[in-house]
Specification:
- The chain is of the alpha/beta class.
- It has helices at 12-25, 38-45, 48-51, 74-84, 99-108, 122-133, 141-155, 159-169, 185-199, 206-216; strands at residues 3-8, 30-35, 56-60, 89-94, 113-116, 138-139.
- Strands 2-1-3-4-5-6 form a six-stranded parallel beta sheet, with helices on both faces.
- The longest helix is centred in the middle third of the chain and has 15 residues, at 141-155.
């Protein structure tokens, strides 16, 4: 039985490229289908004859939405695949460079393959596919760097920074924080600035800071 692969990207040139590379470099018998919209991909996947024995889904995240089914990105489609077709191996291609977004995809979808577009080349793509076919989990170099960066950001929330966050969450003004901490007001301002930088907060008040921490930092309990 051939390997059945579904390629999903809103640019036909991209799916044509993937198809050509896979066809020319894999010794397996292949059956490759291409969808160039989330709508096409949805109906392909949820047509029982189409999705029968589908082995791989190679999916771009950034695509025009299919609002009828509330599928607003490739990420939404990937979540449906995880729920309804858990045996399909997911290979996600992304141009995103947002550490928090990449972290959320790893946590919520955890694809077998996660590849940054900047890392895609002929040989790299085939090498990644073969590793995934061999039941390995593959993360391209840029994804690994983003993951390391995310881990380092979480590590930065040491005891003092955590205390600052808790005090602000409890309504203590920044100017009064030295009364509760063995830190000068200048040191506190520097730590707050570092926290905001790590979280991508360019401007905003303490409420914005606390909200963003609650949304993105897992090792702080309120």
């Amino acid at each position: 039985m051939p390997l059945r692969i579904l390629l999903v990207d809103d640019h036909k040139m991209t799916t044509d490229f993937y198809k050509e590379v896979l066809s020319q470099n894999l010794s397996d018998s292949l059956e490759i289908n291409c969808c160039n919209s989330l709508e096409q991909a949805y109906y392909f996947l949820f047509n029982q004859k189409s999705n029968l024995f589908l082995d791989y889904l190679i999916l771009d995240l950034s695509m025009p939405s299919f609002e009828v089914k509330k599928i607003y990105s490739g990420e939404d489609l990937a979540l449906l695949v995880r729920k309804h077709f858990p045996l399909i191996k997911l290979i996600i291609i992304t141009g995103y460079s947002d550490v928090l977004r990449i972290g959320a995809i790893l946590e919520n979808i955890n694809p077998e393959g996660f590849i940054a577009k900047s890392d895609i080349g002929h040989d790299d793509f085939i090498s990644a596919f073969k590793k995934i076919a061999n039941n390995e989990i593959y993360r391209s170099p840029s994804i690994l760097r983003f993951t390391k960066s995310k881990q380092e950001d979480n590590i930065y929330f040491d005891k003092l920074n955590t205390q600052i966050i808790h005090l602000i969450n409890n309504g203590i003004k920044t100017k009064n924080l030295p009364q509760y901490l063995l830190l000068s007001i200048n040191a506190i301002h520097k730590r707050k600035a570092k926290i905001k930088m790590l979280l991508g907060i360019e401007s905003g008040n303490d409420e914005d800071l606390i909200r963003t921490v609650k949304e993105n930092i897992q090792n702080i309990n309120f």
